Amino acid sequence: MTRRLEELRWDNSFSRLPETFYQRVNPTPLPGARLVAFNPEAAGLLDLDPGEAGRRDFVPLLTGERGIPGTTPLAAIYAGHQFGVWVPQLGDGRAILLGEVVNSRGERWDVQLKGSGLTRFSRMGDGRAVLRSTIREYLGGEAMHGLGIPSTRSLAIIGSDEPVFRESVETGAILVRLAPTHVRFGSFEVFASRGMTEEVRLLADHVIDHHFPHLLVFPASERYGAWLREVMERTAELMARWTAVGFTHGVLNTDNMSIVGLSLDYGPYGWIDQYDRGFVPNHSDPAGRYAFDQQPIVGLWNCARLAESLQTVVTTEQAMSALDAYRGAFTRSFDDQFRAKLGLERPASDDAQLISQLLGALHDRGIDYTRFFRALALYPERGRPAFDGVVDEPGALLPWLERYDARLARDAADPVVRSRRMLQVNPAFVLRTWMAQEAIADAQDGNFATIERLRALLAEPFTEHPDLERYAGRPPEWATTIALSCSS
User: Which helix (H) or strand (E) holds 338?
Assistant: First the structure.
């Protein structure tokens, strides 16, 4: 059953917390607002009729020009460690939570407007987002979901001609973003840093009640420790899954870390083209704190900061056990992800060495990460011709391929079946930076069709799309000149 916008089932649990957790504030209407993109798949998460996007008043309702019945708009407070430096107050400086929709399956979805105007957490900001960064986040979240990795989702992009100043003058936009919750590590840090222990407990209870209800069977003395452990395990698994698809977030501050273990806040992110362990997509990070190969340890560091903020509800022993669980969960998930990518059916003691040697070879020769693994998925069936056009010097990988052949022989699976399984975990398409940039350039010229074409493609990244094969090929030469920053 689908519903009209005014008929959605709102149950705004976060707004029932004390007002120390947020500011009640309405969105600031975006002058000349118009619909740029709409995602019918995300609409289904809310039970929203996709036809609603064609209504004349759809955009005014979403952007705050007219209120939606049942919503309680607010901006949440949080703090965070940004590039390792403690910032005592941040918060939703350009995002407003309209409320929480409960769909017909009992799922809870935050509906948030990113770029919706000033709040008291805006500091020196203008409360706006720009079309460029909004397109990147819209596509980034959907690309991650298409890969089967937990992520915020994108419902719509609202654009306008309103000038917004970043590195240059750009046009304003709003992203309508969905998530089970937007509570983040920094949501706990802000209260812990102020000695507001009751708020820490209230927020923990809120998160457990709505997003970890299976833990309610534990007594309070064990519940918070079990919850922290699960948060850390989910975070570790997320870092491993990012590694497996070659994704770098770019700004893994604690205020960008989701308490439910999903990919949150797509800024200067990037999927690797030529494999480089030290890949940094963000030119605002010259020291490489958030480089590709640093993400697992940064995830652990951020989890330690979360544990510190929860010291009034968990014991030291519970916190240390949870941190150990992070390490174990990352290793297990990493091994599982890469065995699947290599088509290995059962573990073997030398798998870690086989994986490490392959990644070292890809790094040393700068081989395209996504294209290589897609070709590798065809290798059990086709042999070395699978790498034609992907690896410039196939002989350079010969020592590794010989070890790989021996490992496959020990599994003794049918080559056709093995290839079929590998094609289901090694995508043909990821959202390369140049693809997003092409969609941005087209949109700035008034052509929004590329956004929808990429969204639909990235919803099915493991499927061959012969008419869109250029997106699976080598990046164009101009792609190397694209620079991303925190304003991206």
Answer: helix 316-342
- pLDDT for the residue 117: 96
Of 31, 29, 52, 30, the C-alpha closest to 40 is 52
Neighbouring C-beta atoms of residue 207, cutoff 10 Å: 19
Cβ count near 388 (within 10 Å): 10
The vertex-35 CA angle with 34 and 38, nearest 5°, equals: 170
Do residues 74 and 24 touch, judged by C-beta distance below 8 A? yes
- Nearest alpha-carbon partner for 162 in 123, 115, 121: 115
DSSP secondary structure letter of residue 269: -
One domain, residues 116 and 166: yes
Tokens of 475: 């990046």
How far CA 212 is from CA of 218, 239, 280, in Å, comes to 11, 20, 34
Residue range 88-139, pLDDT digits in tens = 999 999 999 999 999 999 999 999 999 999 999 998 889 999 999 999 999 9
Q: How far does Cα 74 stand from its chain's mean position?
A: 23
User: Phi-psi bin for 72: left (phi > 0), alpha (psi -120 to 50), beta?
Assistant: beta
Per the structure, the complete domain to which residue 269 belongs is given by: 186-199+210-340
Whether residues 268 and 296 fall in one domain: yes
On whether residue 190 sits in a domain, the answer given is yes
Beta strand 108-114 with 169-179: parallel, antiparallel or unpaired?
antiparallel
Nearest to 37 by CA among 457, 450, 438: 450
Please identify which of the residues 110, 255, 265, 368 carries the catalytic annotation: 255
Separation CA 53–CA 56 (nearest Å): 8
Q: What is the CA radius of gyration of the chain?
A: 23
d(CA 340, CA 418): 10
Q: Is 255 a catalytic residue?
A: yes
**CB count, 10 Å around CB of 321?**
16
HEC secondary structure over 36-87: EEECHHHHHHCCECHHHHHCCCHHHHHHCCCCCCCCCCEEECCCEEECCEEE
Per-10-residue mean pLDDT of the chain, 488 residues long, equals 95 98 96 97 98 95 89 98 97 97 98 97 93 98 98 98 92 97 98 98 98 97 98 98 98 98 97 97 96 98 98 98 98 98 95 97 96 97 93 88 95 93 98 98 97 98 97 93 82
Rounded Cα–Cα distance for residues 382 and 379 (Å): 5
Strand partners, 159: 34, 173
Over residues 230-251, the pLDDT tens digits come to 999 999 999 999 999 999 999 9
Number of domains in the chain: 2
* CB atoms near residue 467 (< 10 Å): 7
Residue 457 in domain: no
Decide if 186 contacts 265 (C-beta within 8 A): no
pTM greater than 0.90: yes
**82 falls within a domain:** yes
